[in-house]
Specification:
Number of helices: 5
CATH architecture of the largest domain: Sandwich
CATH topology of the largest domain: Immunoglobulin-like
Radius of gyration: 35 Å
Helix content: 10-25%
Distance between the termini: 78 Å
Largest sheet: 8 strands, mixed
């Protein structure tokens, strides 16, 4: 950071002129999203941006942005939209950024010779800051104070610390600085949760009265009263639900003074009852050796963490649930050819598609390396003349599709691979079944 100090001092000495009074110079850090920003332990983090307003022509700036790293940890700082183009569409001549868990320091000189400046304007985006929630943050209990921390400009980040200044006409001016509060709220007095199932929703509630259970609870689904509970019940199983979205509300009614008005606490939650269905499979044909990447569409894939796919009764490989309607997987290898069922299952249900995928073969693919190359005719020659192993798919060895396995098949494939000969008959480019009737098959090797 000594380099930054030297450059800014040089800029001030070389360009110093009188500065007008009553400038508007604002440096602001604001969250991207909710303000004030509310975070919860175990959350996915959040982002903020550093903004700048000025009615002056600006030559450079430096600043620190501080955060309490026991609450939020700064993970990354990237140049904002203004910084990226500030020098006539390009990055500034000098751009020094240092990231620490508890803050970031930045120093920018737009042009070392004063050829480019930042004109007056508002909403200049200098930087984007990405934060994660610090491990070990514990949400306060009901009745305890919220945890409140501040993310704001400061002069204490860096070694040595970087001052927050704006360079205008060669003078270093201190801008008006503002940030935002980061809040970890206390647990709500009435915890109310809904968890959807295959055709049901499990409703639970607690902490609805600091003094103990409420006198009674009223539970509604989509505005319709489901029940009144005055026996301390704090759970409800709503069964027989059709697929769709449902909104639940709870009223916890207590009478602190038997002769006075009741105290009412509310809770609300939503559930989606999503049916598990299978729709389309692409592609619908692949080689029996496995390794075909499938894209499967339907519903209810992401509703549970245990979604699995079986192809012909064998669990698929590399299953990736993209979203609730899409997943990808890789076909396993099998020892037969023909059509198989595809089945999806998870804790919310299951569905199947009959004869949804065809395991076929490619003519000329004889070895198990999944590529048609020199190894395949050599495999055939060793089988025919060298006492080599019997190919699993004899039909694939019949490269000229004449219904017999002999030397001509190896010569045919060698001509295709190296002498620009005719490609083998189908199925060759794509996997499939043999369209020619003969006695050869896959999975039934000849002696």
């Amino acid at each position: 950071m000594r380099r930054l100090t030297t450059v800014l001092v040089w800029l001030v000495m070389c360009t110093a002129v009188p500065v007008a009074s009553a400038q508007v110079l604002n440096l602001t850090v604001e969250p991207i999203g909710q303000n004030p920003h509310i975070v919860l332990p175990g959350g996915s983090g959040f982002s903020a941006r550093v903004l700048f307003d000025s009615d002056q022509i600006v030559q450079g700036w430096s600043y620190g942005i501080c955060n309490d790293d026991t609450i939020a940890v700064l993970e990354a700082a990237t140049d904002g939209a203004t910084t990226l183009i500030v020098q006539d569409g390009d990055l500034p001549a000098f751009n020094d950024v240092s990231v620490f868990p508890n803050g970031v320091s930045a120093g920018v000189v737009i042009s070392l010779v004063g050829a480019f400046t930042l004109p007056p304007g508002t909403g200049y985006e200098l930087q984007i800051l990405d934060y994660s929630i610090a491990p070990g943050v514990v949400q306060p209990l009901a009745g305890e104070a919220d945890i409140v921390s501040t993310i704001a400009p400061c002069d204490t980040v860096g070694v040595p610390p970087v001052a927050t200044v704006i360079v205008v006409n060669g003078a270093s001016l201190v801008p008006v600085q503002s940030g935002f509060d980061l809040i970890v709220p206390a647990v709500a007095e009435c915890e109310f949760t809904c968890v959807s199932g295959v055709d049901n929703a499990d409703i639970t509630w607690n902490n609805c009265n600091p003094g103990g259970p409420a006198d009674y609870y009223m539970l509604f689904r989509d505005g319709v009263l489901l029940g009144v509970f005055d026996d301390g019940t704090q759970t409800y199983a709503d069964t027989g639900l059709a697929p769709g979205s449902y909104h639940y509300e709870l009223l916890a009614v207590s009478f602190p003074d038997p002769n006075g008005p009741p105290s009412i606490l509310q809770g609300a939650c939503d559930v989606d009852v999503i049916p598990v269905t299978l729709g389309d499979v692409m592609p619908i044909v692949g080689i029996y050796q496995g390794g075909t990447m499938l894209t499967i569409t339907g519903t209810g894939f992401a509703a549970a963490l245990d979604t699995t796919i079986t192809i012909g009764g064998i669990t698929a490989l590399n299953i990736v649930v993209v979203d609730d309607n899409t997943l990808t997987c890789e076909t396993p290898g099998v020892d037969f050819i023909g059509s198989v069922d595809i089945e999806l299952s998870n804790t919310f249900g299951s569905d199947s598609l009959l004869d949804a995928f065809l395991y076929g073969f490619r003519r000329g693919l004889i070895s198990d390396d999944l590529e048609i190359d020199l190894a395949d005719p050599i495999f055939t020659l060793e089988y025919l003349f060298g006492g080599g192993p019997t190919p699993f798919c004899i039909d694939a060895v019949d490269t000229n599709d004449d219904g017999t396995i002999d030397l001509g098949d190896s010569i045919y494939l060698l001509n295709f691979l190296f002498m620009a000969g005719t490609e083998p008959p189908p199925p060759f480019v794509e996997a499939g079944l043999d369209p020619t009737a003969d006695t050869l098959d896959c999975g039934l090797p000849q002696p």
